[in-house]
Amino acid sequence: MRELPEAEPEKPDFAVAAARYNRFRSPECEARVVEAGGERIVVDFRGSFCATCAPNEYVEDFVWEVHELLGVRLETIRVEPIGDSTLRAVYGMGSGERL
User: 20: how many CB neighbours lie within 10 A of its CB?
Assistant: First the structure.
């Protein structure tokens, strides 16, 4: 009997997580996945941001959204402003384990 090749592990769809994130946080903040490859994910957060929330809370909310929806652990590596109303966050894929 012939052995079947192993299936490649399914890649997480971070755009789906961004869409769900935006559903609950727009128009104050909208996330857009700029890059998702290998062990690195880059996301731009654009908006007026809530005056009572720290902008980094929006960045960390994305981590929880991905964890809840996709079961993937992200670690925030860097956050930097790239304009008047945009933050760019770079995430690493933790251990890469699905929870």
Answer: 16
Token couple for 46: 């654009």
- List of residues 6+ apart from 19 with CB closer than 8 A: none
Nearest residue to 66 via CA among 12, 23, 24: 12
Tokens describing residue 81: 């402003």
Percent of the chain with pLDDT over 70: 80
Q: What is the pLDDT of residues 39-84, one digit of tens each?
A: 899 999 999 887 667 778 899 999 999 999 999 999 999 999 998 8
95/75 Cα distance (integer angstroms)? 9
Domains defined along the chain, listed by start:
14-92 (3.30.980)
Report how far residue 66's alpha carbon sits from residue 43's, in angstroms, rounded to the nearest whole number. Answer: 12
